[in-house]
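Below is how a single chain appears once it has passed through the pipeline. First comes the sequence as given, then the structure the pipeline wrote out for it. We keep one example in the README because the format questions we get most often are answered faster by looking than by reading.
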Amino acid sequence: MIASNSIRWLLDDCCIYEPSATGSLRLNITELAGNLAYHAMMLEAHLTPKPGLVDCVSTGAHRDMDINTFIASSDALRPYMKRFVRAGIEAQDLEAHDLLLPLRKVGIEAECAMFSATQDVNTHKGMIFTLGLICGAVGWLYARNESFDAQQVQRVIKACCSNLVSADLDKAGSTAITAGEKIYQKYGLTGIRGEAADGYPTIFNHGLHVYEECMSKGYSEEQAMSKTLLSLMAYNCDTNLINRGGIEGLKYVQDSASLLYLGFESNMSDYGTQLGQLDIELIQKNLSPGGSADLLAATWLLAQLNICSK
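Resulting structure:
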C-alpha cells in the first residue's frame, strides 16, 4: 500500500489501519491523511536553506518567528488536520461544491489554535487553508469509495472553491481590508483564493511534476523539495511578496528562483550555497515567499496521496 520511504514512518508510528466490521483491517484515512499533512508542515519547516523563509538556521525575512515557532504551530495543528478529514467524511452526502462551508468551520478553530500556540504569530494561516482543503477532499472522496489521488483531490477542490473569488474578493470591492483583498483591487491578482478556485495550477503544472520526477531519479528528499520550491517560487504570483515588495519584489524572486531552478542539476553539489546566497538577498530586501512554502507542503502531501491511493 505505502511504498515511499519518506512516509514509511506512518506504518510504525501511526494507527493507519483499524478493524473493520468483518474483522479484517481497513485503512484509517483520518490518521493517514491527517498525519501526512502534519508531516508535510514539518518537512517544509525544517527544509534548510530556504530563501527568505524560516528554516533550521535562519529566521529568513521574519523577526517574530523561528523554527521553534513553526514546530509549536505544526504540533497544535496536527489534530485539526485530522478533523478536516473527518469533516469531509461527515459531508459525504453533500455535493463537492457544498464542501467548503464545513471545512471553513474547522479552519476557523485551527487558526485560533495556531495563534494560541504561537502567541499570535501567523505561521500557517495559508497552509491551514490549503492543507485543510486537501484533507477535506480526501475524506469526502474516501467516504464515497472514490480514489483520493491528486487528480481527484484537485477536482473536488475546484468544485468547492469555484465561487471563492467572487464571494470573497469581488464582494469586498472598495471596502477591501486584508492584504489579499487590496492586492486584488490594485493588481487583479487573486492569490491563494484564485489558486484554489482553479485547482492549484501552480502545483499541478509545476511543483508536483518536478517533485515526482526528482524522486524517480533518485534525488534525496531534501534535493527534491529544494528544486520543487524553486519551481514554485518561479511561477507563483505570491501575494506575500507583493505585500512586502510590490510587483518588483515578486518579479525579483521569480527571476532569481528561475535561474537557480534551470541550473539546479549542473550545480547539484553547490545548490545549498546558492540557496543560502539568495536567502541573504531576500532578507536584505525583506522578501519572504511564504505562499510558495505553503504550496511546497501541499505538493509533498499530494505526491504521497498519489502513492497511498494506488
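Strands lie at 17-19, 25-27.

See the next section for the split statistics.
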